[in-house]
Amino acid sequence: MTEDLEAIRLGYRPDADIRVLLIGESPPPGRGFFYTGDSTLFRASVPVFAERCGFPSDPEAFLRRFAGEGFYLDDLSTLRGDHPGDRPDADDVKTSLRRLAGMIDEHRPVVVVGVLDRICSLVERVVALSSEPGTPVRCLPFPYWKSESAKREYQRGLRDVLEEFGCSRGPA
Question: Of these four, 43, 46, 126, 157, which has the most CB atoms within 10 Å of its CB?
């Protein structure tokens, strides 16, 4: 199943450089996934991208535009419901940090956004390990589905990121 999710994610990797790299903790436990358009994070993100950037709300069209504008969401762990922030010195977590740092080296995003406050220190370590340690880092609270206030706080933070770093690559 992990391989299936990663294949789906790779199908939406931007063809050109990743302009905004979002880093989550792991795919949701049980079911749902951002790149299948049926996760809490996806549902909380779509209205902000639609409002601020004119993205479509249809999941497939949204995900294509998301990739086309250089946005990419990756996770510290590919295992559903994993909590790598609870074991920052584990070998698999260190391997993931190096992998994500390599992504920064390759794509030189304008910002790296952690999508869960408790992984912010790991996201900062990813950037520090890269050849681009000056890359701005922003961390957002996760929009937990049971909490309207958490959703609003996430959306406010995402609006701020989009306002500061823009919605698109700009003119081609």
Answer: 126
Please provide the DSSP assignment of 112-141 as one string: EEEESGGGHHHHHHHHHHSS-TTS-EEEE-
pTM: predicted TM-score of the whole model, two decimal places: 0.95
143-159 residues labelled b (16+ CB within 10 A) or e (exposed): beeeeeebbebbbebbe
Specify the number of domains making up the chain: 1
Q: DSSP alpha helices (H): ranges in the chain?
A: 2-10, 40-53, 59-68, 91-107, 120-129, 148-165
Q: Dump pLDDT digits (tens) for 55-113.
A: 999 999 999 999 999 999 999 999 999 999 999 999 999 999 999 999 999 999 999 99
> Residue 148 is part of a domain; what is its CATH number?
3.40.470.10
